[in-house]
Every structure is written in C-alpha cells, then in structure tokens.
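Cross-posting from the modeling subforum.

Setting up a comparison between two proteins and wanted a second pair of eyes on the formatting. Protein 1 (sequence, then structure tokens):
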Amino acid sequence: MKKAVENKGIGFFEKYLTVWVVVCMVTGILIGRFLPVIPDFLAQFEYANVSIPIAFLIWLMIYPMMMKVDFASIKNVRKNPNGLYITWAANWLIKPFSMYVIAWFFFFVVFRTLIPQDLARDYLAGAILLGAAPCTAMVFVWSHLTRGNPAYTVVQVATNDLIILFAFTPIVALLLGIGGITIPWGTLILSVVLFVVIPLIGGILTRSNVIKNKGEEYFNKVFITKFSNVTIVGLLLTLVIIFSFQGDVILSNPLHILLIAVPLTLQTFFIFFVAYFGSRKIKLCHNIAAPAGMIGASNFFELAVAVAISIFGPTSPVVLATIVGVLVEVPVMLTLVRIANKTKHWFPGEKVCYGPVEEMK
C-alpha cells in the first residue's frame, strides 16, 4: 500500500523514463549506423550553429513547462522566505561549483586512465551545463510524492526560473573558462534567449490569456493536460535524433556512459542533502524541506541539452554527457523520494515548524 501511495502522481512515461532513454539511444544509434542519410539530412538545417529541427522539438518540451509555473505567486516571496533562501543558496551558490569539482575529480583523476583528456574536457562541459540548470518541471512530481506544500513549491520553481535568466549564462561561462573550454559568448546568450526567454514569455502570456478567458480550473484540468503528449513526443524524438548523431562516440566508448553517470549521481545525492539538512537546521517543515532538496537534485536537462547542442553541436560528446543526466534522473530521484519520506520524523510537525506554511496558499 505504501508503495502504491508513493508512486501516485508520477505518470507511466516519467516512471520509466530511463527505459525510454535506453530505447531512444538504441534506435538513434541504429539509425546513425544503418541510415546515415537521416542525420546527414537533418544536419543541413542549422542557423548560428543551432539545429533547427532539434530546437523546434526542445521548444515542444520547454514551452508546456513554462506554462505550468504561476509567476504571479512570486508576490508571496516575503511570506516565510527561509525555504527560498535554502533553495537559492543550494541551486546557485553551491550546486554549479560542486558539480564542477566532483566531475573534474572523476574525469581527470579517478578515470584518467579510462577517459582521454579531450573527452574528459567535453564531459566536464556537459556536467557544468547540468549543474547550472536546476529543475523547473519534474520537481512538481517529486514534491507531490514527498507530500510537499504545492503552493510553496510553485514559488520555489518560479523564482528559480527567473534566476536562470540572469545567472545561467555567467555561471556557465565562468566554469567553462576555468575548465579550459572556449566560451562562445554569442551562441551561449542566443541559447538562453531561444530556450529560456522565449518559452518563458510565451508560457506566461498563454497561461494569463487562458486563465483570463476560461478560468484557472479549466487551465489546470483541461488546457495544460493537452500538452502532456506533446512534451513526451518532443523528448523522445529529440533523443532519437541526438543519439543518431552520437552513435560513433557511444560505440567507440560504451563504458563512458557509466563513467559519466558516477559523478552525476554523486552530485545529485550531495546537493539534495545540502538543501535537506540545511532546511532541517533552520527548522523548516518537511513539506518545504523535501521540495527544496528535490529542486537542486533534479536538473533542467532540456535546457542543458539545448545549450550543449547550440554551443558544441549535436555530434559533440558534451551533448552525450547531458543526456546521461536524463538517463539517471528518474531512478536516482525516486531513491531520494523514498529517503525523504522515510526521514519525515527528522522535521518538526507542521503545526510547530518554523514559519506560517499555509500563508503561501
């Protein structure tokens, strides 16, 4: 019964996301190997190093996510802000830099005899992109599974989306520079405009217009549900196309997928416990602490993949590193959900915890 309750709220596709990623990987590799005319044809459609077909599919993934976020909730930031401080600190002051340190240590020290230095630098770049992009969509699922406060989670996600606009580019540029990777500033800024600014504005306008004309209940229960399959199709087709470009890299270095997964997984656990224990230290409710940990642990992998493709091209090993983040996301996050649910007694009861939680509603 407990397991059934825990899995409630996560859809069939999300639950088996790792399986679908593997299926897409195999399909893409087979296409690239036996039908190379397909990736060769798609490679012709580029503008400013951005693949137009992949950009379109990524918009299909990101746009519905932006519509789900109620940016009007930001007016509630001053009500019980401590959970937001934890989220912001973990996501922007710790996560990008801890990702860099952990990934660098494994790629250049622990795995130095297994990964050539040029590939290690590419994989590090992919890890940097993941580390600078905290989750914006799936965190609603993780929050639900840990009985998180939904209103507070919306505020946490909304403020992080706005911070991405200003912090993602300089943090990525800084860490890429430290890693000895050339920074194409123009492409990096263009990527943020294409895959954050435009979908963000579009999502805000669409949400506002639909709610104004049809009401919030219609938007949440009818309108937004129409985009569920669109997001799924966009993700699956994007992965197939990317893996069709990545076939040679994967077949030449099959072990590297596992090697990349190691630091990404360790980083996920690390940043979760930083936010989780930080929340416990200042006596926050569990229904705020758990989502705070989940936002940092989970990644906005759609953005990371999009920017990796824009900057380095769809055939780059950098893209492969970001895709491995997709591969490990669900099993690792479900593990953290179980940990959070089993440690709820570490936190004070909602009636005595720090801050007026219900005021966020």
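Protein 2 (same layout):
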Amino acid sequence: MTQENLFSIRGKVALVTGGSRGIGELIVRGLAEAGAKVYVVSRTAAVCNQLADELTSQGAEVVALSADVATVEGCRLVVDTFEAHQDSLDILVANAGTTWTAPLSDYPVEGWDKVFDLNIRSIFLLVQGLSPALRRGATAADPARIITIGSGDGIRTPKHEAFAYSAAKAGLHQFSRHLAQELAAGHVNVNVIAPGYFSSKMTNWLFDDPAEYDRLITRGVPMGRPGTQDDIAGPVIWLASRAGAYVTGTVIPIDGGYTNQ
C-alpha cells in the first residue's frame, strides 16, 4: 500500500443522487476527476445529460440516469436501470434532498411530506434496492460504501424556519448509523457527511442576499466562507478509498466550524 493508491478510487463504480446541481454536482465532478465511473441521477434529464456529456468529453466515464427519486417509481427505475448495466456498486452517495421554509403556524403538510419523501424515504428505498449490488463486489479489505449527505442543520438548530428539513436530516443521521450496524457483516460501510453552507439551488436565497450572507456565513461560520468543491469531494473520496475502509457509522461535519458553536 502506497500513499498514491491509499486514496485511490480509480476504477470504482459510483452512483450519486441529486448529482446534476449543487453539492451533488461537486461530488460527481470530484469522483469523476479521481477516476471513478459515475452514474449521475437527477430528475432533470437535460441538466443530467449536459453534465455527463461535459465530463465524458474531458475523458471521464459518467452516465446520466434521469429519475425522480422522490417517488417510489423513480427509486425502482434507478435500481432496475443500474442493475441492467452493472454487476456491482462500490459507492452510493445519497445526496438528493430538498427543503421547505415557512412559519410554524402556516407550515403545510404537503411541505413536510415532500421533504421527508426525498430526504429519508428515497434513501431507504435506494439502499434496500441496491444492497445486493453493494454486497456483490464488497470484501472485508475493501468494503462497499454508502455515503449519505446529511446536514449541519441536523446537528444543531438552524437559524431559519426549515422545520421538516432539520428533522429529516437528524433522522437521516440516525438511520445511517443504524444501517452501518446492519450492513457491516456484508462488508458495506455507511457514513454521513453533514455539510454546512455550500452554493446550491437550495441556498441561492442566501447567496443572493448580502445581509443574510453576512449574518449566516461571514459572521455565522467561524471560517467565514462557504464550502468549495474540494471541501466536499475530498471527504467523499477519502471515505470511498482504502484510507476510509475502517470507518463506518460516523457523522462528519464539513462546515467550517458551523456546528461547533
């Protein structure tokens, strides 16, 4: 084992949900640049295909898989399509997520259900369906990896009225810990990355509002800045490589110190 291949994921097969924008896109780019074959899942076919075509033109191996994992049918489509093309899966990054912000007195049930269906139920269905593919190529020395994308807002109380989001992400953290125990015997590691503020469709409102940016990032994050592609892709690659083979059941904040306050 050398330092060069200790962190290598070259030749591994990854699947990233919500991979065409925001944090998911940063992860897809990082995995592809590191030599993994990446299936990028997004409900928006045009954006998904555009990203796959761009990275493929640069020499990466990226496959677009359009599906809405907020639905049961969409999750089944992902599982069936993947298994029709690949024997095994090395890395599942469950990133797709959404939020809904409203005052508690006006918080709609449909908003609550939308957040929980995508942020928790979709991950349950995908793990359930893709577990055979994850176990198929896994070994004790090189387990398969499930990396769920939680949130700093699932660790500490958020500073905005995203009640379902914080509850769903906290639930995802615990669900992932439970999965880590359940799947360890089959050589599947499960860990959570809990990001702080990164530029994404979900956080556009923050980056477009100088006063909120100053309140929540400049003054609210000890490091005083949002995260970058390297900040999120690096931990994913570490967890997916030989260097992360003995790590499971953890929640890792990647947030510039946001949750440590």
